[in-house]
Write a structure and sequence with these properties.
Elements: H1 11-14, H2 25-78, H3 82-88, H4 91-94, H5 103-120, E1 124-128, E2 134-137, H6 155-161, E3 166-171, E4 178-187, E5 192-200, H7 203-211, E6 216-219, E7 225-228, H8 243-252, E8 265-270, E9 275-283, E10 289-302, E11 309-315, H9 316-360, H10 362-418, H11 420-450, H12 454-476, E12 490-493, H13 494-505, E13 514-518, E14 526-529, H14 531-548, E15 555-563, E16 567-574, H15 581-584, H16 604-614, E17 618-623, E18 629-636
Parallel strand pairs: 13-15
Antiparallel strand pairs: 1-2, 1-5, 3-4, 4-5, 6-7, 6-11, 8-9, 9-10, 10-11, 12-14, 15-16, 16-18, 17-18
Length: about 650
């Protein structure tokens, strides 16, 4: 229920005489000046500044892009510069001009050139005789094959026949595909036997420009567009050609049957040495120009190492869009400014009336404040009491959690002692092998001593000493099950621990049909831990894997590791049946086992997890996508040395 005993009368009842701002003459004059003078002048100046700034930024951006595109063109052409020179020395191609021209030589050359084309990723590779007839080509199997075609009229052929390397861009008369031709003579400079030609496609450059939606064109020395991202610009001219020049180009067949239609241009305005503002009619694919005029900026620069020029086309409509967007924003800013001015004036009037309103009802507010203070005190006292009760509950919960952790530790320790008998039997089995080996080495040492082979005797005694140390380590494993506090961690060699673990398992009867892939091998990886306790964890996981694969005729275990800056992860994967989804959440719980009754206590993985935690790591398990279980042991990485 809402308390209305201290409600104030509505403010509107006390402020009905608010003055209309638009009736104020000074405000009227201010608005007229802003809307009719200041705002138009400022918008005009802003539009001019935006246009000039955008044009300046545009020139810088275009220079950067054109420099990149020019470098791409030079790089695309130069990377094939070596190929004709190398092919001219190719014995398969040179054999075409040695003795009679056999069919099998031509067939071998065709296949060889086809392989070179695919490997080098060029458009075509072909060989011509001194008469200009193509005798072998990479496209010999295609419908538009160059074989049998005569290209004696091409300048690149004429240059090669004089012993020089030829460079030429043209539209293919056979394939109708434009390309950059590189030629080189086959034979001596004074005795040219033939010419090898490599045709490089510029389609990759055009596709890249088209994908980036960049209007970039390249013209040659004749002013003809030879490379363009848009198909409608290809083989157009940026200026009309004279009839004599057009006839010469048609006779040269450099552009095949292209019509060389000029792009229609109108007024021009030079911005700087590289930039021209002009009006054009956009080219169309059917060979005509659009009827609509459009203003563009054309920025040009030469392509280094060639007689080509790269042009970047930027449409002035985009600059106008920037100016319009800026003007819209500025107009909104003016509108917000004017509205803010009106709001401030209105706000000032409202504040004046509100102060009078507040003064009139000050006593009522003071009484309400006193009542509110009493309510706050009562509510604060209730919150304090609730907070005290909450603190007591938290203390009780923390005590219960500590008791739970202590009970879990006692349970694990009891499990260790319960598994002592089982572990003792396993360790006894592990000790039999070293004892048998010690006896064998000692018997051999006696025989070798009688024969005077002291070096071999010394070696046997060293092996006996190592085996005795091994027995000491194995017997020391029993201490793991009787202590609660972890031992001190030290840097240990991971490969050494794994190799010693695998050596302990070699005698197991279950290892007969198991293949172990130890990918760690002799890698110099150091981790923090204890070698004996880490061996116990590895033996426990590997024996569980052997038990899981006991019914398989061929079983495999993979041991690998992954390293980061601070941690090392050991991954042990088997080809067993893996775990069920409901088992993965419980496999590290004490007394939980997936084995049959009587074959396991369910403490091995729980104890192993506790050991790894003592090392500052974690033990995890999951199923592999290809089947089998994967155990991951994460340990802290130790420094070398």
């Amino acid at each position: 229920m809402t308390d209305t005993s201290f409600e104030l009368p509505p403010y509107s009842e006390l402020n009905d005489d608010t003055t209309d701002l638009l009736k104020n003459r000074s405000i009227k004059i201010t608005l007229i000046v802003l809307l009719c003078v200041a705002m138009p002048l400022s918008l005009w100046a802003l539009a001019q500044w935006t246009y000039d700034a955008s044009l300046g930024n545009l020139r810088q951006q275009l220079d950067s892009r054109m420099k990149l595109y020019s470098s791409n063109i030079v790089s695309e052409l130069e990377k094939y510069e070596y190929l004709p020179t190398i092919l001219a020395r190719d014995p398969i191609l040179k054999s075409l001009f040695e003795g009679d021209m056999m069919d099998y030589r031509i067939d071998r050359a065709n296949r060889h050139l086809s392989a070179i084309r695919d490997t080098a990723e060029v458009s075509a590779v072909y060989v011509m005789n001194p008469q200009g007839n193509t005798i072998a080509a990479s496209n010999w199997e295609e419908e538009a094959s160059f074989v049998g075609k005569n290209f004696q009229f091409r300048p690149y052929f004429k240059n090669a026949m004089t012993g020089k390397t030829g460079h030429y861009f043209a539209l293919g008369t056979t394939s109708k595909i434009p390309g950059y031709y590189l030629s080189h003579p086959i034979g001596d400079t004074d005795d040219v036997n033939g010419v090898v030609v490599v045709k490089v496609s510029v389609a990759r450059l055009e596709e890249a420009w088209a994908t980036a939606n960049e209007e970039v064109i390249v013209t040659d020395s004749n002013g003809v567009v030879i490379i363009a991202g848009q198909e409608e610009w290809k083989f157009r001219t940026l200026k009309p050609l004279s009839e004599q020049k057009r006839s010469t180009l048609i006779l040269s067949r450099q552009y095949s049957d292209a019509k060389l239609i000029p792009v229609e241009m109108g007024r021009q305005n030079t911005i700087d040495e590289q930039t021209v503002r002009l009006a054009i009619r956009q080219p169309k694919l059917e060979g005509q120009n659009s009827k609509k005029w459009e203003d563009i900026y054309l920025r040009s620069r030469p392509v280094l190492g060639t007689d080509w020029t790269i042009h970047y086309i930027f449409r002035e409509a985009k600059l106008r869009e920037d100016v319009i967007n800026t003007l819209i924003i500025a107009a909104f800013a003016w509108l917000i400014t004017i509205l803010s001015f009106l709001y401030i004036v209105q706000r000032r009037n409202m504040i004046t009336h509100r102060l009078a309103y507040q003064e009139k009802h000050q006593k009522t507010l003071e009484q309400a404040a006193i009542e509110l203070e009493h309510r706050v005190k009562r509510r604060t006292q209730a919150l304090s009491e609730a907070n005290n009760r909450l603190e007591e509950e938290i203390k009780e919960r923390l005590k219960a959690e500590n008791d739970l952790h202590m009970a879990q530790d006692e349970l694990i320790q009891a499990g260790k002692l319960a598994a002592l008998g089982q572990m003792a039997a396993g360790i006894t089995h592990e000790m039999n092998q070293p004892l048998t080996a010690i006896r064998s080495y000692s018997d051999n040492a006696t025989v070798l001593l009688d024969r005077g082979r002291l070096d071999d005797v010394h070696s046997n005694l060293q092996q006996i000493s190592d085996l005795c140390a091994r027995l000491g380590k194995i017997s020391g494993q029993l201490k793991v099950f009787s202590r609660k506090t972890p031992s001190e961690k030290e840097p240990i060699s991971l490969s050494k621990v794994i190799n010693e673990t695998l050596a302990l398992l070699e005698s197991s009867a279950k290892m007969g049909n198991v293949t172990i892939h130890n990918e760690i091998g002799k890698q110099d990886i150091m981790v923090l831990g204890e070698p004996i306790r880490l061996e116990q964890v590895l033996i426990n996981i590997l024996r569980n894997a052997l038990d899981a694969m006991a019914d398989q005729s061929e079983a495999t275990i993979w041991i690998s590791c992954q390293t980061t800056q601070t941690r090392v992860s050991i991954l042990i994967r088997d080809t067993g049946p893996g775990f069920k989804e409901e088992e993965l959440d419980r496999i590290f719980d004490p007394f939980f086992t997936t084995k049959e009754v009587g074959k396991g206590l369910g403490l091995g993985l729980s104890i192993s997890s506790r050991i790894i935690q003592d090392f500052g790591g974690v033990l995890k398990a999951h199923n592999h996508v290809d089947g089998g279980a994967v155990f991951t042991i994460e340990l802290l990485q130790a420094a070398h040395g």
